[in-house]
Protein backbone atom coordinates (compact mmCIF):
# COMPACT_ATOMS: atom_id res chain seq x y z
CA UNK A 1 0.00 0.00 0.00
CA UNK A 2 1.84 3.11 -1.18
CA UNK A 3 -0.96 5.66 -0.87
CA UNK A 4 -1.07 7.67 2.35
CA UNK A 5 -3.78 6.45 4.68
CA UNK A 6 -6.33 9.12 5.54
CA UNK A 7 -7.86 8.84 9.01
CA UNK A 8 -10.58 10.83 10.69
CA UNK A 9 -9.64 11.55 14.33
CA UNK A 10 -11.65 8.87 16.13
CA UNK A 11 -10.26 6.18 13.84
CA UNK A 12 -7.05 6.52 15.85
CA UNK A 13 -9.05 4.46 18.35
CA UNK A 14 -10.83 2.09 15.97
CA UNK A 15 -7.59 1.08 14.25
CA UNK A 16 -6.23 -0.06 17.62
CA UNK A 17 -9.35 -1.84 18.82
CA UNK A 18 -10.40 -3.51 15.58
CA UNK A 19 -10.66 -7.28 16.03
CA UNK A 20 -11.84 -8.49 12.64
CA UNK A 21 -15.53 -7.58 12.84
CA UNK A 22 -17.24 -4.79 10.93
CA UNK A 23 -20.20 -3.52 8.96
CA UNK A 24 -19.76 -5.71 5.84
CA UNK A 25 -17.30 -8.07 4.12
CA UNK A 26 -15.98 -5.20 2.02
CA UNK A 27 -15.52 -3.02 5.08
CA UNK A 28 -13.69 -5.82 6.94
CA UNK A 29 -11.33 -6.59 4.07
CA UNK A 30 -10.39 -2.89 3.74
CA UNK A 31 -10.03 -2.60 7.51
CA UNK A 32 -7.76 -5.68 7.52
CA UNK A 33 -5.55 -4.09 4.87
CA UNK A 34 -5.33 -0.67 6.57
CA UNK A 35 -4.78 -1.95 10.11
CA UNK A 36 -2.13 -4.42 8.94
CA UNK A 37 -0.16 -1.48 7.51
CA UNK A 38 -0.64 0.74 10.57
CA UNK A 39 0.21 -2.02 13.04
CA UNK A 40 3.26 -3.41 11.24
CA UNK A 41 5.00 -0.27 9.93
CA UNK A 42 6.19 1.66 12.98
CA UNK A 43 7.24 4.65 10.87
CA UNK A 44 4.00 4.96 8.93
CA UNK A 45 2.63 8.45 8.30
CA UNK A 46 -1.07 9.17 8.09
CA UNK A 47 -3.09 12.15 6.96
CA UNK A 48 -5.64 13.37 9.48
CA UNK A 49 -8.83 14.52 7.80
CA UNK A 50 -11.92 16.05 9.41
CA UNK A 51 -14.12 14.22 6.91
CA UNK A 52 -14.75 10.69 5.61
CA UNK A 53 -11.51 8.74 5.22
CA UNK A 54 -9.76 5.58 3.96
CA UNK A 55 -11.96 3.41 6.22
CA UNK A 56 -15.24 5.17 5.46
CA UNK A 57 -14.57 4.58 1.74
CA UNK A 58 -15.65 0.91 2.05
CA UNK A 59 -18.32 1.39 4.71
CA UNK A 60 -22.03 0.86 3.98
CA UNK A 61 -22.86 3.73 6.36
CA UNK A 62 -21.06 6.29 4.21
CA UNK A 63 -23.74 8.40 2.52
CA UNK A 64 -21.46 10.60 0.41
CA UNK A 65 -18.10 12.32 0.74
CA UNK A 66 -18.04 13.92 4.16
CA UNK A 67 -21.34 12.41 5.29
CA UNK A 68 -21.90 9.32 7.49
CA UNK A 69 -25.28 7.93 8.53
CA UNK A 70 -24.01 8.02 12.12
CA UNK A 71 -22.76 11.61 12.05
CA UNK A 72 -24.67 12.34 15.26
CA UNK A 73 -22.19 10.05 17.03
CA UNK A 74 -19.02 10.00 14.97
CA UNK A 75 -18.65 13.78 14.78
CA UNK A 76 -18.78 13.87 18.57
CA UNK A 77 -16.13 11.13 18.79
CA UNK A 78 -13.96 13.08 16.33
CA UNK A 79 -14.37 16.34 18.27
CA UNK A 80 -13.15 14.68 21.48
CA UNK A 81 -9.97 13.39 19.83
CA UNK A 82 -9.33 16.74 18.12
CA UNK A 83 -9.58 18.41 21.51
CA UNK A 84 -7.37 15.92 23.38
CA UNK A 85 -4.58 15.95 20.78
CA UNK A 86 -5.07 19.55 19.59
CA UNK A 87 -5.27 18.15 16.06
CA UNK A 88 -5.27 20.02 12.78
CA UNK A 89 -5.75 18.41 9.38
CA UNK A 90 -2.41 17.27 7.99
CA UNK A 91 0.26 14.57 8.00
CA UNK A 92 1.39 12.97 11.27
CA UNK A 93 3.25 9.93 12.54
CA UNK A 94 0.62 7.33 13.48
CA UNK A 95 2.76 6.10 16.38
CA UNK A 96 3.19 9.63 17.71
CA UNK A 97 -0.55 10.24 17.77
CA UNK A 98 -1.69 6.93 19.25
CA UNK A 99 1.05 7.03 21.89
CA UNK A 100 -0.05 10.48 23.04
CA UNK A 101 -3.70 9.47 22.93
CA UNK A 102 -3.20 6.16 24.74
CA UNK A 103 -1.17 7.79 27.47
CA UNK A 104 -4.04 10.18 28.12
CA UNK A 105 -6.61 7.35 28.10
CA UNK A 106 -4.57 5.10 30.39
CA UNK A 107 -4.17 7.84 32.97
CA UNK A 108 -7.78 7.62 34.11
CA UNK A 109 -9.44 5.00 36.27
CA UNK A 110 -9.82 1.85 34.17
CA UNK A 111 -11.53 2.75 30.88
CA UNK A 112 -13.36 5.87 32.14
CA UNK A 113 -11.63 8.24 29.71
CA UNK A 114 -12.22 6.02 26.70
CA UNK A 115 -15.85 5.41 27.71
CA UNK A 116 -16.42 9.15 27.97
CA UNK A 117 -15.39 9.51 24.33
CA UNK A 118 -17.04 6.55 22.60
CA UNK A 119 -18.69 4.32 25.22
CA UNK A 120 -21.96 4.43 23.25
CA UNK A 121 -20.36 3.08 20.07
CA UNK A 122 -21.95 -0.23 19.01
CA UNK A 123 -18.47 -1.77 18.70
CA UNK A 124 -17.26 -0.78 22.17
CA UNK A 125 -18.05 -4.14 23.74
CA UNK A 126 -17.39 -6.15 20.57
CA UNK A 127 -13.91 -4.96 19.69
CA UNK A 128 -10.82 -4.92 21.89
CA UNK A 129 -10.50 -1.12 22.15
CA UNK A 130 -9.77 -0.70 25.84
CA UNK A 131 -7.89 -4.01 26.18
CA UNK A 132 -5.46 -3.16 23.38
CA UNK A 133 -4.89 0.38 24.66
CA UNK A 134 -4.43 -0.78 28.25
CA UNK A 135 -2.01 -3.52 27.17
CA UNK A 136 -0.10 -1.05 24.94
CA UNK A 137 -0.53 -3.53 22.14
CA UNK A 138 0.08 -1.13 19.28
CA UNK A 139 1.40 2.15 20.74
CA UNK A 140 5.10 1.40 20.97
CA UNK A 141 6.67 4.82 21.58
CA UNK A 142 7.85 5.48 25.14
CA UNK A 143 5.20 7.43 27.03
CA UNK A 144 7.88 9.08 29.15
CA UNK A 145 8.41 11.58 26.35
CA UNK A 146 4.91 12.98 26.81
CA UNK A 147 3.35 15.18 29.46
CA UNK A 148 1.45 13.22 32.12
CA UNK A 149 -2.31 13.77 31.95
CA UNK A 150 -3.38 12.33 35.29
CA UNK A 151 -2.61 9.65 37.84
CA UNK A 152 -1.50 6.24 36.66
CA UNK A 153 -4.07 3.47 36.86
CA UNK A 154 -3.37 -0.10 37.90
CA UNK A 155 -6.71 -1.29 36.63
CA UNK A 156 -6.53 -4.84 35.35
CA UNK A 157 -10.06 -5.18 33.99
S1 LIG B 1 -19.61 4.33 10.45
FE1 LIG B 1 -19.26 6.38 9.51
S2 LIG B 1 -17.34 7.11 10.46
FE2 LIG B 1 -17.43 4.88 10.78
S3 LIG B 1 -16.31 3.98 9.03
FE3 LIG B 1 -18.52 4.04 8.47
S4 LIG B 1 -18.77 5.99 7.34
FE4 LIG B 1 -16.81 6.13 8.49
Describe this structure in words.
This protein is of the alpha+beta class. It has one domain. The protein has 6 helices and 5 strands; from the N terminus they run βααβββαβααα. The strands form 2 sheets. Strands 1-2-5 form a 3-stranded mixed sheet. Strands 3-4 form a two-stranded antiparallel ribbon. The longest helix has 16 residues. It starts with a strand and ends in a 23-residue tail after the last helix. Bound molecules: iron/sulfur cluster (SF4). The site of iron/sulfur cluster (SF4) has 9 residues, from loops.
Index terms:
single chain, 5 strands, binds iron/sulfur cluster, 157 residues, alpha+beta, 10% strand
Care to give the gist of this entry?
It contains six helices and five strands, in the order E-H-H-E-E-E-H-E-H-H-H. By secondary structure, it is of the alpha+beta class.
Fold blueprint:
Blueprint: E1 5-7, H1 11-17, H2 25-40, E2 45-48, E3 62-64, E4 67-68, H3 71-85, E5 90-93, H4 94-106, H5 112-118, H6 129-134
Parallel strand pairs: 1-2
Antiparallel strand pairs: 2-5, 3-4
This protein binds iron/sulfur cluster.
Iron/sulfur cluster (SF4) is lined by residues 52, 55-56, 59, 61-62, 68, 70, 74.
Amino acid sequence: MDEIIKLRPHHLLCTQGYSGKGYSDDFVSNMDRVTEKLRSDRGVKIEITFSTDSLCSNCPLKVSDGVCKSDNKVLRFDASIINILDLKEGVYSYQDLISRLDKYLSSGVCDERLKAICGDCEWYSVSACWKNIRDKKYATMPWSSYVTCGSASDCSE
